[in-house]
Amino acid sequence: MANANILNYIDPFDSIAISYDGKNFSNNINKKSFIGSRVSYNDVILHTFKVPTSTSDDELKINVEIKMYDDAGLDVQKKYKISYSKKELDFEENVLVEAFAIEVDTVTKSLESVLSRTKHIDFLALPFLSFSTLYKNKIIEAKNDIFVYIDENEAFLSIYKDGKYLSSKSLINLEEMVKKLETDGVDITINQLKEHLIKKGLDASIYERGETTLFNGIEAIFAAMLNKINDIVIYNRSVFGFEKVDRIFLSMHNGRIKGIRKFIVDFGFSDVEVRDFNMFRNKEDGNFFEKIIASYINDKLESKDFSHNLTVFTKEPPFYKKESGAILLIVSSIILLSLLYIGFIEYENIELEKQKNMLQERYDIVKKNQKRYKQQINAVNKELKNTETKKESMDLKVQNIEKNIMRLKDIRDSKIVYSEFVFDVNNLLKKYNLSTTKIEITGKNSMNIEIVAQYKKRDSITMFMEDLIDGGFIGIKTDEIKLDKDIYMSKIEIKR
Fold first, then answer.
1. Strand partners, 48
2. For labelling, which of 87, 418, 452, 453 has a CA lying 20 to 30 Å from the CA of 248?
3. How many CA atoms lie within 13 A of 482 on its CB side?
4. Can you tell me the distance from the alpha carbon of 444 to that of 426, in angstroms, rounded to the nearest whole number?
């Protein structure tokens, strides 16, 4: 059983594993602890839309699914894990919804290094939501903050207002910076650029005479980045009332950029405090962002909040907790107890048979002395009759038990057939991302379902029915198809 007090965090990009108990980080990995990791920002599909504040949670879940497929362009042929967050808007009767989706195959490939070390991931975090741990654990005071993370293949910013997440946007990463510098005539690798940003960065006084082109290229890249950040701040000001920036936290995977504080202030953020991600009370070495995410996942586990957990790599439940396993165990237990009881009844029958034989012998003896032992004979006859009655009762019980065993076997077999039948239909519903408003089981090999789909996706119902027929189902009938508020509804009868 997993230890809920210790989290093992495995980073998918450098394969570093750390443990966290809510206070201290260490490299002592416990295989029985919870496993956490994160997705790459590039693997997250984001889409924002508004809904009325009166929208129920169930309605919102349906809206999120529809919007992500219709507006965000999710592929109906692929599997996704989808989540969302709601944000209150001032002076509006609407709620802003930000939906997040990851494509299962893509994320599985990105997490190959993690999955090579563990077969399951208990919590898979979205990186831009992780900074909330800094406020929750009172590492920093709640203000208007921008967090900027830059790495080889991902770079993004997250905006928080008074300690609450507002939005996130992608930025230029190190790989893209190298390509941009190449167009300016600078030949440099990603590792060289990392080292250069840490040692010289944006401090013009450190550069030598022959490095003017390199400095100008780096300066232009970060100036464009700050321009984009400023545009994003202006947009969030109009939507969320994000009036000013109090702090900017900016880090690369392996440290701070030299001269970035002065560069940001000179750019125009004169009243902004500039810091990096090394903010824990006990200063830590290594990638500070990994520790922020580990702390965030630990918060989620402690509060048992899995609302933004995008893992699809869950631990297999024990056999006895599965529905089929529970049914099989119950049936097997009943059969075993029944067989034991049958054995007991058989033993009783043998004993009764012995008693009958003994009484018959006594009866034969008494019969020879009928006149003398008439009273004894009557008593023996009565006892013999009672014994035979008991035996008949026992025989009847054995017959009933045998019938019950046969019924239990039938129940077990019908459960398996029924489970396979429902499982097959459910897989096809998932394949075409079809939602149902009603499922009615009319027999172990028949059911009626009512499917709802957006009008634009009405062909999904036809393909669903064709796959049913190809899968060996018979009697596929559609009783009613109608259009109601852009929703295509169909009642389908399925037989096998």
1. 98
2. 87
3. 6
4. 15
